[in-house]
């Protein structure tokens, strides 16, 4: 809280899962804004730990999906985190965006991926400006 607010968070694999759990368990209020304005989650997945999974399922049953803009990145040849696991995590968010790359378990660095990041962040920026004008 001392160093925030933050524009966004980028997480890879377990880091993406941890970022998603943090967002799912941080319930914003009028007095406490969300911790981030967006998230980029690369090879994220629903946690396998029963207690964390229970928290997520409980939240999903009692609250709507999080409206925070998210970009979910998945590799077609990822042998550690399946596309299905990444898509399952994305259901926790209201309007997820997706980027699929032909690689494996890693963060792509090609021009197409950089453009998807740029486009996603531009969209988040536009939404933020629009929200500020209507607030």
Automatic annotation (TrEMBL):
InterPro entries: AB_hydrolase_fold, FSH-like_dom, LovG
GO cellular component: cytoplasm; nucleus
Occurrences of domain Serine hydrolase (ranges): 1-116
Key words, A-Z: Hydrolase
Sample GO molecular function, one term: hydrolase activity
The name this protein goes by in its record: Serine hydrolase domain-containing protein
Annotated source species: Strombidinopsis acuminata
Lineage: Eukaryota, Sar, Alveolata, Ciliophora, Intramacronucleata
């Amino acid at each position: 809280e001392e160093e925030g607010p933050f524009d966004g968070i980028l997480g890879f694999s377990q880091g993406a899962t941890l970022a998603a759990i943090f967002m799912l368990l941080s319930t914003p209020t009028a007095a406490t804004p969300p911790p981030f304005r967006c998230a980029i989650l690369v090879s994220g997945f629903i946690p396998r730990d029963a207690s964390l999974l229970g928290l997520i399922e409980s939240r999903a049953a009692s609250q709507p999906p999080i409206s925070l803009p998210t970009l979910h990145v998945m590799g077609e040849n990822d042998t550690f985190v399946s596309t299905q696991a990444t898509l399952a995590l994305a259901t926790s968010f209201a309007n997820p965006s997706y980027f699929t790359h032909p690689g494996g378990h890693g963060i792509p660095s090609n021009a197409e991926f950089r453009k998807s990041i740029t486009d996603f962040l531009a969209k988040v920026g536009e939404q933020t400006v629009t929200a500020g004008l209507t607030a």
